[in-house]
Specification:
Blueprint: E1 8-10, E2 15-20, E3 25-30, E4 37-43, H1 60-66, H2 74-81, E5 91-93, E6 99-106, H3 121-126, H4 136-151, H5 153-166, E7 174-176, E8 182-184, E9 190-194, E10 205-211, E11 215-221, E12 237-242
Antiparallel strand pairs: 1-12, 2-11, 3-10, 3-12, 4-7, 4-11, 5-6, 6-10, 8-9
Helix pairs in contact: 4-5
Length: 246
């Protein structure tokens, strides 16, 4: 396959996916400054990867679940980092607690989210939308399918196994530039509350993520236009695949 162009577009309200080889870095740019980008990484098969062979002490279902291809897991990442989201120097971990990506640089204010699920068809129904609405869950699967069609068996095989193992859901994304503050109370500490706020990023703010394994990175320019998290107007964003240290 030819090398991808230096600058690629994540279309407004749509998704995009790219291969990222071990050691390569992806730069994801908030081109207009107010766009949330749901981001995932899915590991490609690797003979050196941590595996969990079938264990006769457990059920077939448990062993099948343990054999699902690795993907970035926000709950495992929070447990490993003891933080609500990564900062430069931190890795993003898989459900097998292995690093898949490392956040190496961030020119934004550093406000990102790991708590909120990807929007889906049912989220918009919950918000009062009638009929289908573009959403990050569909964008993720569509972008993976388009990349698999272009790249061939290695991606196709992993995608099929992943979809079967996840039962149609997508993992919780690393929501780049998403502003979900914990509501503070007087005197310090936190109450049990979150709020959906507009991003605090500026035009051209970017993050750099280095691959610790061969992965597929999927990005969705979130189409949320009911709440204010994208400033009310979802826009396109851009990414570049870079070689070596950045």
């Amino acid at each position: 396959m030819p090398s991808p162009p230096a600058l690629q577009t994540i279309p407004a309200r749509r998704g995009a996916a790219t291969l990222l080889r071990h050691g390569q870095t992806i730069k994801i740019t908030n081109t207009h400054g107010h766009q949330v980008i749901d981001t995932w990484a899915f590991a490609l098969p690797s003979p050196s990867a941590t595996t969990s062979p079938p264990d006769p002490q457990h059920t077939t279902e448990a062993n099948l679940a343990a054999s699902i291809p690795e993907y970035t897991s926000m709950s495992h990442t929070r447990a490993s980092l003891l933080k609500t989201h990564p900062v430069p120097g931190d890795s993003i971990y898989s459900q097998r607690r292995q690093p898949l990506l490392t956040l190496t640089k961030d020119t934004s204010p550093g406000i990102h989210d790991t708590l909120i699920a990807a929007c889906d068809r049912w989220r918009y129904q919950e918000l009062g939308v009638r009929g289908w609405h573009a959403n990050c869950t569909d964008n993720c699967w569509d972008a993976l399918a388009e990349l698999a069609a272009a790249e061939g068996p290695q991606v196709v095989g992993g995608l099929g196994k992943l979809q079967a193992g996840l039962g149609g859901r997508v993992p919780d994304p690393f929501n780049l530039f998403m502003n979900i503050p914990l509501r503070e109370r007087e005197g310090g500490g936190y109450v049990k509350g979150l709020s959906f706020e507009e991003p605090v990023t500026g035009t051209g703010d970017a993050v750099w993520l280095r691959a610790e394994r061969d992965v597929v990175v999927v990005m969705s320019a979130c189409p949320q236009d009911v709440l204010g998290i994208n400033g009310g107007v979802p826009m396109e964003a851009h990414f570049e695949v870079l070689e070596g240290e950045v």
